[in-house]
Design a protein that fits this description.
Elements (H helix, E strand, L loop, with lengths): L1 H17 L5 H41 L3 H20 L3 H7 L14 E5 L5 E6 L3 E4 L6 E2 L3 E2 L10 E7 L10 E11 L4 H4 L18 E5 L2 E11 L3 E12 L2 E12 L12 H13 L2 E2 L4 H10 L7
Antiparallel strand pairs: 1-2, 2-12, 3-6, 4-5, 6-7, 7-11, 8-9, 9-10, 10-11
Length: 308
């Protein structure tokens, strides 16, 4: 029995010798390694939560107010894009399509003015620069000569209108004055209208001056002329008669000059040129029908009213 116990004891001792005691250093290293991993995990977790919180805070701030730097960059990019678009050729057709502002051009006044008298039915055109008088103020005059008389064979003539050239129409010449005049006489018959009151002083019998038939514009008229001169003034007049509307119409073209143009370098005015201007006015004359009340008014008052 004792022997067996010893053997058992020996085996127990042998097992103890076979299974050595645990190493304290190994246990310590394993413990430190385990704590290190736990600390790293904890720190990683804390860092993750911190980053997440930072990101959430940044996101909230970006939603509340835009980044000034980003906004400025965005505005600059937008401005650059706008300028680039304006500088592209595509903007040219748009500018061309827009209508240009209308320029205001001053209206030019016509060179000629129309005169019309309802009482006599006379109308004509004359240059705007010429001076017009009508009615009882229309009796023509020539410088250095005075009043120019009517040339009807019967009294009763009424002045209608007179158009005078400017005094300085021909500077440097002996031109003094010129005019176009219209008269009407309802007391003269058609046969008498073909004659004139002035007589040819070169004849002994004193018969009226024979008239010459001429055509002015579309109208046929009787025409005569008269010329008078002195040492200081000369006057030439041309008379035209036509019978219409039961009345005799008289048109007078007059030209007056002063001196003989022999001193101071003054030249004679071109008489044909002056009368050509006056004949242009005569060629525009029209005789319109006259209402009976206008005829009576003109006969009583002896005044005709004209208008431009």
């Amino acid at each position: 029995m004792a022997t067996i116990s010893k053997s058992a004891n020996q085996r127990s001792a042998s097992q103890k010798s076979t299974n050595p005691a645990p190493n304290n250093n190994a246990i310590s290293v394993a413990t430190v390694s385990s704590w290190s991993r736990q600390q790293k995990l904890a720190m990683a977790t804390i860092a993750g939560f911190a980053i997440l919180g930072l990101l959430l805070a940044m996101s909230a701030c970006s939603k509340q107010s835009p980044n000034p730097a980003l906004a400025g960059a965005s505005n600059a990019a937008s401005t650059s894009a706008t300028l680039a678009a304006a500088a592209t050729p595509a903007a040219a057709p748009l500018a061309a399509a827009l209508p240009a502002p209308a320029k205001k051009t001053p209206k030019k006044r016509p060179a000629n003015v129309t005169y019309s008298d309802p009482n006599s039915g006379v109308s004509f055109l004359y240059p705007r620069k010429f001076a017009l008088t009508s009615g009882d103020k229309a009796l023509p005059q020539l410088a250095g000569v005075g009043d120019v008389p009517m040339n009807f064979v019967q009294p009763g003539g009424v002045a209608v209108a007179t158009v005078a050239l400017p005094d300085r129409a021909y500077p440097g010449t002996d031109f003094a004055s010129a005019f176009f005049n219209v008269n009407v006489n309802r007391s003269v018959s058609e046969q008498e209208c073909a004659h004139f009151a002035f007589v040819d002083t070169s004849t002994a019998d004193g018969e009226p001056v024979d008239a010459e038939k001429v055509k002015i514009g579309l109208s046929e008229m009787e025409m005569t002329s008269n010329f008078s001169a002195s040492a200081t003034a000369q006057a030439e007049t041309q008379y035209y008669h036509s019978y219409e509307n039961g009345a005799c119409y008289e048109y007078v073209l007059g030209l007056g000059t002063e001196g003989f143009a022999t001193e101071g370098g003054i030249e004679h005015v071109n008489r044909d040129q002056v009368f050509a201007k006056l004949e242009k006015i005569l060629a525009t004359v029209k005789i319109n029908p006259v209402e009976p009340e206008h005829v009576a008014e003109q006969t009583v008052s002896g005044i005709a009213v004209g208008k431009e």
